[in-house]
């Protein structure tokens, strides 16, 4: 478990490119044959990936959590961005095709990840890649699977402004219930590159992005920082960004892409955000 300590907006002007990436970019989300996670002290989120690579991987109990098992005091949302995989929770197995989301509530003691090869998979990745987003929990909600196409689907943006996108809301107030996680997937339409504009902050929650379906020769420029002092991160396929509550977030790619978005903090209202028009950003 890698630790990332919280950074304040006052520190932002002091970061060079390496310093910015070290604090806010998670480059190695998926490591074949491992569960690899990062603990950020922004809202005490744990994010990472499980890539079984032909083996069974148990969700470890990391010493840093000071818990008897990972979900003793936590909940987790899981989105598969690879080929079909399985997640076994206390003996019950759930099959996650690409794009599916599984919520696992506080108290589940035995979680195991594995591949589930399927002839129907069109993923260019040969095995499952299960993205994990975990936050502290104080209430237990039942484990629940959401398959691709289920949940709440919202069409947003306009092709004229290059941000036509389909947003899939999975874990939310009116969908799969959680203690504090809000989670979903956004897919940009061909020819669109902006994932949101105007950019926004939500001072009551930390948000993390996992970018995927980014072509090998493409990158996403993730805009972050204060509206009055912006910075950017150059992000490749299957890399994640930690966005503190004080940081705005928007991104533009050199080609269309998708991303998993997930939040935790003060509330679960998806629309609780403060917009910052691009004409007022510096």
Quickly name the level 1 CATH class. Answer: Mainly Beta
- Structural class, from helix and strand content? mainly beta
E-strand count: 23
- Roughly what percent helix? under 10%
Report strand %: 35-45%
**Count of helical regions:** 1
Mean pLDDT: 92
Integer count of domains: 1
Physical arrangement of strands within the biggest beta sheet: 1-3-4-11-6-9-12
H/E series, N to C? EHEEEEEEEEEEEEEEEEEEEEEE
Poorly predicted runs are none
User: What does the main sheet amount to?
Assistant: 7 strands, mixed
Instruction: Name the CATH superfamily classification.
Output: Jelly Rolls
What is the CA–CA distance across the termini? 35 Å
The assigned CATH architecture is Sandwich
Indicate the CATH topology: Jelly Rolls
* C-alpha Rg (nearest Å): 18 Å
Oligomer: single chain
Describe the 3D structure.
With 282 residues, the chain is an all-beta fold. It has a single domain (15-268), classed as Jelly Rolls (Sandwich), CATH 2.60.120. It has 1 helix and 23 strands. The protein has one helix spanning 17-24; strands at 2-4, 25-26, 34-40, 45-51, 57-58, 74-80, 85-89, 92-96, 101-104, 111-115, 130-136, 144-146, 152-156, 165-171, 182-188, 199-201, 205-212, 220-226, 229-235, 239-243, 250-253, 258-265, 274-276. The strands form 5 sheets. The protein has a 7-stranded mixed β-sheet with strand order 1-3-4-11-6-9-12, with no helix packed on it. It has a 7-stranded antiparallel β-sheet with strand order 2-20-17-22-15-14-13. It has a 4-stranded antiparallel β-sheet with strand order 5-10-7-8, with no helix packed on it. A hairpin with a 2-residue loop joins β7 and β8 (92-96). It is globular.
